[in-house]
Specification:
The protein has 2 domains: 274 residues, Aldolase class I (TIM Barrel); 78 residues, Orthogonal Bundle (DNA polymerase, domain 1), CATH 1.10.150.110. Helices cover 44% and strands 12% of the residues. The chain contains 15 helices and 10 strands. The strands form 2 sheets. Strands 2-3-6-7-8-9-10 form a 7-stranded mixed beta sheet. A 3-stranded mixed beta sheet has the order 1-5-4, with no helix packed on it. Strand 9, helix 7 and strand 10 form a beta-alpha-beta unit. Helix 1 runs parallel beside helix 3. The protein is globular, with a radius of gyration of 22 Å.
Length: 387
């Protein structure tokens, strides 16, 4: 007899998580989720890790769903004291049909003019398309779909069995098409790419092609992470259903590891980049920036610097180069004034006083700053254009 879901309502003291700055994957600085546990029950979900899960057993994750009944009120109170930036929110598991908390949290973001990022496995998100469009009109909205295979994938049946109650990818792609038609940025998070199940070239290409065909503008890829009780849980599932893969995963994830010990994910990321280029989309998510906001230019520049760091990383360039661009992105993100004003007032010397900007990177961004700020000094080289 299958186990039935149990719903528990409770009132936490806080709901908003704050980062020092926006992350370089989803461009979110804040996150707020209305539920703990997930009925979809994907076997590979990192949320079973001890630091994310409130349950003693990882088996409870898909069956004991805790609804944060006061999450919309907590979110409104917290965001009213925050600088506007992207909020990662929304959770459209079946429990949302009962509690409607995701919709209420989106409405809070809309009321306060905050951009949102929603990552979803369910077409139920279409129920709240009206709120998402309202957010898009005031700030910006992004809806990405978590999809790691298509019906064309060679191991589609096996992948499907690991997703349990999650709606099939065909329905997610159909929802993506409607989101795109509504003028909202959308795409695919091909995460986690599972070794031996969905990491072959034809499977990766099919995900990219289906994304492009359904109006998606990007495909992000990432490796499987396994820690503590989630590692034990996932290995148990493999042993029960795919024993032929268990030894491979045990070698990739020895005790104490979090990410795979081999860098196969870099090759996967490069293949995704190649396929995205072939189908005219991106392997990075465009940053949702509110036009005309105080530091719009800075945020666009940060996006370019972070994208360059990612490209250097997946092409296995020296770590020193990768970190130079990453630190530069953080430095510009942390500036409290428009970097063009810094350059307009002090020229290159002003840029050199910003901790984290190396001379090489200053040389790349200086021509763009000169053009944008009207500064007259003529020394510069190649430009890191903000297309």
């Amino acid at each position: 007899m299958s186990r039935r879901a149990e719903f528990v309502s409770y009132a936490p003291k806080s709901v908003l998580n704050k980062g020092k700055r926006a992350d370089h994957w989803f461009w979110s600085r804040y996150s707020a989720y209305p539920y703990l546990g997930c009925q979809h029950g994907c076997a590979f979900c990192y949320c079973r890790e001890q630091k994310y899960s409130p349950f003693d057993s990882p088996d409870d994750f898909a069956y004991v769903i805790k609804a944060k009944q006061n999450s919309p009120e907590l979110l409104r109170r917290a965001l009213s004291r925050c600088t506007r930036d992207v909020v990662f929110t929304g959770d459209y598991q079946p429990a949302e049909r009962l509690f409607h908390l995701s919709r209420q949290m989106l409405q809070v973001c809309c009321d306060l003019g905050f951009p949102v990022m929603v990552l979803e496995r369910s077409p139920l998100v279409l129920r709240d398309l009206d709120v998402l469009q309202a957010i898009q009109g005031k700030a910006r909205a992004v809806v990405a779909f978590s999809i790691i295979y298509t019906p064309e994938s060679s191991q589609a049946g096996r992948c499907r069995s690991l997703e349990n109650l999650a709606p099939p990818p065909e329905k997610r792609f159909a929802a993506m098409e409607k989101i795109a038609a509504a003028g909202i940025l959308t795409g695919t998070c091909c995460m986690p790419v599972l070794p031996g199940l969905c990491d072959d070239g034809p499977s990766l290409e099919s995900v990219v092609r289906w994304t492009a065909d359904h109006g998606g503008q990007f495909v992000l890829s990432g490796s499987l992470t396994l820690a503590d009780q989630q590692r034990d849980f996932f290995f148990r599932i493999l042993g029960q259903h795919f024993p032929d893969l268990l030894d491979r995963y045990q070698r990739l994830y020895p005790p104490g590891s979090y990410a795979p010990v081999h860098q196969d994910w870099l090759a996967v990321a490069r293949r995704i980049a190649e396929f995205c280029d072939r189908y005219g989309i991106r392997d990075r998510m465009p940053r949702p920036v509110i036009p005309g906001e105080k530091r719009e230019f800075n945020k666009r520049l940060v996006e370019k610097l972070a994208d360059r760091a990612y490209l250097l990383e997946i092409t296995q360039q020296p770590d020193s180069r990768v970190w130079a661009y990453r630190r530069a992105a953080w430095a510009v993100e942390d500036l409290e004034q428009d970097v063009r004003l810094v350059y307009q007032r002090m020229g290159r010397k002003g840029l050199e006083q910003i901790p984290g900007l190396s001379g090489v990177i200053i040389g790349e961004i200086e021509p763009q700053l000169r053009e944008e700020s009207g500064y007259k000094d003529e020394s510069a080289k190649d430009s890191l254009k903000l297309g």
